Amino acid sequence: MYDICIIGSGAGASPIAYELSNAGYKVVVLEKGQDYKEDDFNKDELAVCRRDMFTPPLNEQKHIINEYSQSGKFTRYDGEKSGWNFWNGSMVGGSSNLMSGYFHRMKPNDFQLHSTYGKIKGANIVDWAISYEELEPYYTKVEKVIGVSGKVVKHKYQEPRSTANFPYPELLTNGVTQWFDKACDVLEFTSIPTPRAILPKDALNRKGCYYSNFCGSYGCASGAKGSARAALLQKCKARIITDAFVYKIDTKHKKVKSVHYYTKHGIVHVINAKIFVLAAQAIETSRLLLNSKNKDFPNGVANSSGEVGKNLIFSAGGSGQGRFVFDKLNKKEQKELMQTGVFFNRSLQDWYDYEDGCHKYKGGTIDFLFEHQNIISRVNRELYDEDGKLLWGEKLAQNIEKNIKESRVLTFEVFNDWLPTDNCFVDVDDKERDAYGVPVGVINLNSHPHDLEVGEHLAKQAVKVLKEMGAVDIEYSISSSPPPNLVAGGCRFGNDPKKSVLDKNCKTHDLENLYVTDASFMPTGGSVPYTWTIYANSFRVADIIKERLRNGAI
Amino acid sequence: MYLNQRRNFLKYSFLGSSVFIMNGCELFSVTTIHDTIKVLHTDLFPKANELQIETSNYISIILHHERVTKEDKIFLKNGVKWLNEASASMYKKTYTKLLFQERQELLHAIVQKEWGESWLHTVMTYLFEAMLGDPIYGGNNNEAGWKWLSFEGGLPRPTKAYL
User: Fold this and answer.
1) How many domains does one find in chain B?
2) Residue B146 maps to a domain
């Protein structure tokens, strides 16, 4: 029998595997996808970005999506027929292999959203069950163990730190960052070097970044990116079983007894362990609990509260861009603009909260980055003229050549809170089944109008910077469209077993030996990408589990 | 070995499978996807020919790719049929038999229709995949597409095509 069985192998799962196996416990990790190593990764745009080689085919595994309008009515979409894809990285290390690694900590106020900013009608806002101070040592641990590079600058919303700076210096940046910094000086904004989960040099028995020019969406061929696989799983003795799709959790007397998984050929395996940790990504974690219902848990395992699947959240906001054209630049500036490989790495957090009239708003983060280098997608964006007419022939060739060779697009991404609401939740479908024969997850989507209001405010600030820098063709889009790679909630933690699925230690209230350590625990998401917080919380829970095992409490 | 031959037969038979062109209720002509796409690609983006990049064979990869949905493959094939039927209706000839100017007029006519715009966009997307994808897929001869745009592919490059 194993001491620990972990379902999933991403950022929420791997710190548990790393800590517990390195402490001498017998750990097994069950991963649905394949295992890849650095040597397996390349920069094939067709395979990775256009044929989605790292996610399950939608004709085998899909979701049903119910999109709610503000009136409360919804439209149902079949994921396979609509092509609406909520999968991220189905592989050892999960989507952390493919992340860009923009790492921001949540701020102290993010842990007390309700107390600090008050109630918002129609939103299920609560404070977290822990404080920033409780998580701070683990944010610091992630900096060291996963490897976070950057430079701390003083600004109004800089969160308290137990160390003065990051353990790794900033990655190399493009000369255009200086234009950005100057524009921020003029506007009296604070330019922040974006911290990245990327090693700038060889360290931690991993190679440093080689500036491939293709980072986000791709696996890292050097190991510089702090994926859960490269940073943790490849450095511990946990047994990893791939091609293991867990479809059922068996319980007995308030304990999980075993989990059952299918291989892709339909062979059933059963794993017994003392402690089980569920970290299959927010949507799939809720789906598994709901699909595992039994006589003791008729509404789903660990669901006596009825809260499993509820209050699903994403990152709200959107994106925008501006173009820098050769016609407006001197030769030196043109050369700086076209320098590839190195990063842009600039963020703004001046409006992490802000006042508008007599109301205090929780704001968010804006990250700036150059348009992805993928050449096929860049060229595809040139297919229409300014009037929206499809181009072809010589005219199209001229447009492509001019825009690709004599200009470059700087983009920005806005991250603000996606407020939890009653109509945003995970369920399972009565009829639709995946290739394993298991009921598919239903993603019910609803966004709060407040999210758009805040996103708009932030986007307008980003536009000011682009204008000051001299960009043209500036545009942005703030929408309620959910980013599939920024999903959390569904098993929120809290102190009241009637209103939450997990206790403050991320153990289920209902079961003595079942923990959930992916982003499901988050009752609100903060206004930053989630990965750093998921890692930090998982390291925190690893310490709690270690202590329990050491004390013989299980 | 036998299996590979069998697979290749199926592969080429599907790509080469006939597209029946109707004019009203009558069979007007028979063509293939590849024959039409080959001419269409030169009409839509002659730069590829100029750079000596062959793009039309890439359609074979798309029509047999496990990650391209059946619906998308059918749409690609149906578009060939609809283009030729529009050609038959306007000029009493199939697309490949039209003069260059007639083909351009036809493209300008079908782009006004919802299916036409969507289909031409799809065809061009695959054309640029062939032209600007890694040369391992058979297009982008000698990286000519990348060189045209002063683009350097990311490293490491793939050592085998993902099909």
Assistant:
1) 1
2) no
- The Cα–Cα gap between A528 and A519 comes to 13
Q: Does B111 touch chain A (CB under 8 A)?
A: yes
CATH topology of domain A2-550: FAD/NAD(P)-binding domain (3.50.50)
> What is d(CA A113, CA A92) in angstroms, rounded to the nearest whole number?
34
pTM to 2 decimals? Answer: 0.96
Q: Which residue has the tokens 């590079």?
A: A149
Give the whole-angstrom CA distance, residue A514 versus residue A496: 17
CB contact under 8 A, B128 and A41: no
Task: Check if the beta carbon of residue B51 is closer than 8 Å to that of residue B75.
Answer: no
Residue A436 has pLDDT above 80, yes or no: yes
Q: Name beta bridge partners: A225.
A: A198
Element (H, E) at A278: strand A268-278
Instruction: Pinpoint the alpha helices (H) of A268-392.
Output: 282-291, 331-337, 375-380
Strands A2-7 and A268-278, sheet pairing: parallel
Average pLDDT over residues A529-545: 98
Decide if B85 is inside a domain. yes
Residue B17 sits in which domain range?
2-135
Residue B100: inside a domain? yes
Question: Cα A218 from chain centroid?
Answer: 15
**Alpha carbon of B140 to those of A228, A383, B48, B56, B137: distances in Å?**
35, 19, 9, 12, 8
Please check whether residue A115 touches B, CB under 8 A.
no
CA distance A47 to chain B (A): 6
Q: Which amino acid type is present at position A322?
A: G
Q: Is the pLDDT of residue B14 over 90?
A: no
Per-residue pLDDT of A259-277, as tens digits, reads 999 999 999 999 999 999 9
Domain ranges of chain A: 2-550
State residue B6's pLDDT score.
Answer: 43
Residue B61 has pLDDT above 80, yes or no: yes
pLDDT-based confidence at residue A4 (cuts at 50, 70, 90): very high
Task: Quote ipTM for the complex.
Answer: 0.93
How far from the centroid of its chain's Cα atoms is residue A440's Cα? 22
The answer to whether position B161 is within a domain reads no
Q: For A319-361, what is each residue's pLDDT tens digit?
A: 999 999 999 999 999 999 999 999 999 999 999 999 988 889 9
Query: Chain A within 8 Å of B162 (Cβ-Cβ)?
Result: yes
Q: Is A170 left (phi over 0), alpha (psi -120 to 50) or beta?
A: beta
Among the listed residues A345, A336, A413, A335, the one whose alpha carbon sits nearest the alpha carbon of residue A171: A345
List all residues of chain B from 113 to 142 with a beta carbon under 8 Å from chain A: 117, 120-121, 124-125, 128-129, 132-134, 136-137
Q: Dump the DSSP string for B11-46.
A: HHHHHT-EEEEEETTEEEEEEEHHHHHHHHHHHH-H
Q: What average pLDDT score do residues B149-154 get?
A: 94
